[in-house]
Design goal:
This protein is of the alpha/beta class. The protein has a single domain, classed as Metal-dependent hydrolases (TIM Barrel, Alpha-Beta Barrel). It has an eight-stranded parallel beta sheet. The longest helix is centred in the N-terminal third of the chain and has 20 residues. The radius of gyration is 20 Å and the shape is globular. The protein starts with a helix and ends with a helix. The model has no long low-confidence stretch (mean pLDDT about 95).
């Protein structure tokens, strides 16, 4: 059993939300006793900071069709271009997305030329994608990774999400179901730190790509595998000296949540931690989802203070119905500023660090 699964069996409100916090949230005079929105934020400052931001984890239709009502990838790219964002990396749970990114990039370029004829300035956002190694692409399929890289504009390889053994366990599915999920360590979650042959083959393909392409790099995103698997991957990469950077997805979303000690361990092992808008702050359409708001911002500020911002990444993970990425970015930046995170730190985490990941800057 993983540490997270053991915690969930004992902690009724998740690994970080306490009974005391829930009592505050349900106090009869809650908004008058506890509401603290932080300091006021100038909307113009938010728009200014958004220029040049890179989002390495977003979603959009027509992909992700299991959530009808998603904003389209094209709509998001136009809005991001108008907002002055630098780059977007789209993710889908079932298929590679970088081929779509190539088509959209061509469309945006044509759009810019047409607008230029009218004297309208329009700078296209750079559009990228990647591949998620669920069973729809053959699971831990190194050949699928090679094909995705061959298509170009592939910036991330995500480990399994919907088909991860850890996710199936977290969902409380029967053993006969979750044991068929994908685990990237031998013997199952927590049994050992030895990576499966398939995981090693994927890492080899990625390292070879990063070593042999000029200026093009691909990042491994740990996605929904267990924390034990993430640590094993980070240790293997460090031991072998591989040229592969590892992103740890939405580290304050309960299923993939890191405690402060886990977060610091993974930073020390070379991991890059994603703080996601849709896992840190409330957004429209999430009526049944409790966000660990205080924990998210307290952890972010603690890590900035103790470890610095150079392995922390702000993303939105947006693209759900009611959560458009550009609007999500504006809300996230506003909340960061309101909670005392400086403009300098936001620029590092939303621009400099993701640029280092996807451009090798």
């Amino acid at each position: 059993m993983s540490k997270a699964m053991d915690d969930w069996s004992k902690m009724p409100f998740g690994r970080v939300i306490t009974a005391e916090e829930l009592k505050r949230r349900t106090h009869p005079a809650w908004p008058y006793n506890y509401f603290n929105p932080g300091k006021p934020v100038d909307p113009e400052k938010v728009d200014e900071l958004l220029k040049g931001c890179i989002d390495v984890h977003i979603h959009g239709a027509p992909l992700g069709g299991w959530l009808p009502g998603r904003p389209t990838m094209v709509e998001t790219c136009i809005e991001a271009s108008e907002a002055g964002m630098r780059a977007l990396v789209f993710k889908d749970h079932n298929t590679m997305v970088n081929n779509c990114a190539s088509i959209i990039q061509d469309f945006l370029g044509r759009m810019a030329k047409e607008k230029a004829k009218e004297g309208i300035e329009f700078t296209p956002v750079e559009v990228y994608g990647g591949i998620t190694l669920n069973y729809t692409v053959g699971g831990m399929n190194a050949h699928a990774v090679k094909v995705a890289l061959g298509y170009g504009r592939c910036k991330e390889v995500w480990l399994p999400s919907l088909d991860a053994m850890h996710q199936k366990q977290a969902q409380g599915l029967p053993k006969e179901v979750w044991e068929k999920g994908i685990c990237v360590t031998k013997g199952g979650i927590g049994a050992s730190e030895d990576l499966t042959d398939e995981m090693i083959e994927v890492l080899d393909v990625m390292a070879d790509y990063n070593n042999n392409t000029k200026g093009d790099v691909v990042v491994l995103s740990a996605c929904h595998v267990s924390n034990e698997e993430k640590v094993a991957i980070l240790k293997y990469i460090r031991k072998k000296g591989m040229n592969v950077k590892v992103l740890l997805d939405h580290v304050t979303q309960e299923m993939t949540i890191l405690t402060p000690s886990e977060a610091k361990e993974m930073i020390d092992l070379g991991g890059y931690l994603e703080f996601a808008e849709c896992s840190c702050i409330p957004w429209p359409g999430m009526a049944d989802w409790i966000v660990a708001y205080d924990y998210s911002f307290n952890l972010l500020k603690e890590l900035i203070k103790e470890k610095g911002p150079d392995q922390l990444v702000l993303i939105t993970d947006a693209g759900q119905p009611g959560n458009k990425p550009v609007a999500g970015w504006k809300m996230f930046i506003k909340y960061c500023l309101a909670q005392g995170i400086s403009e300098e730190m936001i620029n590092v985490m939303a621009k400099e660090v993701p640029a280092k990941l996807i451009y090798a800057e």
